[in-house]
Amino acid sequence: MIKEPEEISLLDIYKAVDSIETLFNFHENPNPSCPIGKNIHGVLDDHLIAAQKALEDSLDQVTLEVLIKEVKQREDLL
What we know:
By secondary structure, this protein is mostly helical. The protein has one domain. It has three helices and no strands. Helix 1 packs across helix 2.
């Protein structure tokens, strides 16, 4: 299906070219004996999920059409 520039967001592009599900992927098997390791996901996961959501929400607000217009504006300034 062909989409117009105003129908394609940066989030669409990001999802199309990036194969990772999450930006923050770390310590798959933290040491349960380590005071940091055993708590790292409980402390950080919600914050990192919120950060990723904020990024995705921001990317979703910018369309390819907006970028094209910005490039054209910059070209007019040169």
